[in-house]
Amino acid sequence: MCRIASIALFLIMSLSGNTGQALMKSRTMEEFRPEGSKRQYIFFMKDTQVGQLISEYEGESEFEGSRSYRFDQELNLDFSSLGREYTVSIDGRHFVDSAGLFAGTDMTIKVNDQEQELYLEATADSILGHSIRGSHRHEIKVPLEADYFAADNNMIDLYELFLAFHDLNTGDTIYDTLFVPQTQVTTPVTVYVEKIDRIRYGRNFDSAYVCRFLEPTEQIAYFTRDRRLVRLLQPYQDLDVILYESPLDKLAPPKQAFSIRGFFRRLPLYVIYLVIGGIFAAPFLRRYWNRPELYVMLVMGGVVFVVAKAIASPLQRWFGENIMIPGIRAGGSLFSYAVITALMTGIIQEIFKLLPPALLHVWRHQKARFLVALGAMCGIGFGIYEAGAVTGSAWQTGTMKLVSAAMFERIFAILFHATAGAAVGFALSRGFRILLPVWAGLVVVHSFVLYLFVFLQKGVIDYSVLQITIALIDLILLLVVFLGIRRGLRN
Length: 491
What we know:
The protein has 11 helices and 17 strands.
């Protein structure tokens, strides 16, 4: 049921247009953490400090004759200040391969007065090793059919490693499996990347991805764009883990959320989207390129995108948290609730794309051909602004290539919005009796495209099939609208 809830959370965000602020996974260990880097995490329970974890990345190393990368870890927890005679100390060395996957571990674990040594090595098809407690030695052999990331309870640096080697995109859900060295078992892990938010950790502030772990333990991790896990919350245990940073680390100039340099770095992307939008709209714009109203519509398209998103996002979230997820947990169908969620977004976006050309038409009556051009230009503005919001950060940081699935997706999204705008513009010229069914048809098509994402999350189709399907739908819609408008104008 936790998996179903996470799928529902994904739909709430993706259908509300809140997806797309991407951080690509680390390609190398050095891109994640420089050699010699140190993390110091302070543990608080009920606002009382109960311990710390110190993690040092030692860089490339050798483990059982193989190239690996080593983390030295020292964990000390003492809950006596909370009235619990319970202490934990771990002194360990954790080894991973170049992709961050588990290679082995060598640790000494002490719980109260009980001490245990644990040594594990990952081989091609199993985990081999031993544990020693007192004079008793236990040989370990655990068959594993695949390589996994590994994480133990309270080893915050390993959760940081896990997130660093996954793509993070707001609205997405990560499904994977973790190996737990201390218990030698695997467990499913589900992480919903909720949003990017301003987070406080200690006396410091930063922007971070809010990563909500739904499995194996419900917790919230805050992961920054420079790949630091700066805070982790476990609400049900009232546990708060904060990355401690020396004041000297904060002397560097703060990163700016927006800069002129950043804008100019994104400018080529915006120009590409604008050119693409112009190509798509060319059949509708024809001889009206010199009319200033068109460029007003281009700007208004971006404005209404911002307004539509500001309205849709909280509405979708409220529906998901109060109706959709409780309904699914009670046995309801995800497919049924997803219909409502998709329709919400389709209706809101198509209403706001209709408003600018409709208001201009009411204020000053426009001819049919020009209304088509106005509607198409408004749709282009909507699509370009949406595309920039979704892919701008990834382009600026160099994590998105020009030829990529993200670019492919945005190109056809712009095509859809331009086509829908042209259809609405023509329908406006024919009056309400024509406008209503045309607008309703566009809502259905738009909502259906959004609804297809539930099949992606349920594993019915993969991402490439989904994008090809959406592209075909957009091309068919363009053909139908173009032929319909041409026939209507002739008559």
